[in-house]
Amino acid sequence: MKTTLTRFIRSLVIFSSIIALAGMMLLFLVPKLLSPAIPWLLLLFFAITFIGFYFGEKAGKEKFSKFVNYYLVMSMLKMFLLLIITAIYIYLKRDDAIRFVVALLILFFCYLAFEVVWLLKIKNNG
After folding, report:
1. Containing domain of residue 99, as a range?
2. Which of 28, 49, 82, 112 gives a 20 to 30 Å CA spacing to 17?
């Protein structure tokens, strides 16, 4: 039987690939609509989601309350990191600011939904 982490990684790769394909299709259809930073944002969200899940699963094996505390702290740190990255990017590339922020928000909510679905799966199975 596959471990939860292995299933999560497989799902995360599939989910990220689908988002990347959708982004490539949009890039060919309306290239002016997308920020050139989208591939980097996709990698950032992939890494943040994986790291958060990995450490969250380790914390959750010990005690559920520890997992809840970890998840809340990780969510706060993720939002703070994204805020810093957004501020730096907007400062450096003002002409791409709106497209960058829209792409970041869309990816944030997509990956947030992905995480919530996985947390509900784990809660229902465990």
Report:
1. 4-125
2. 82
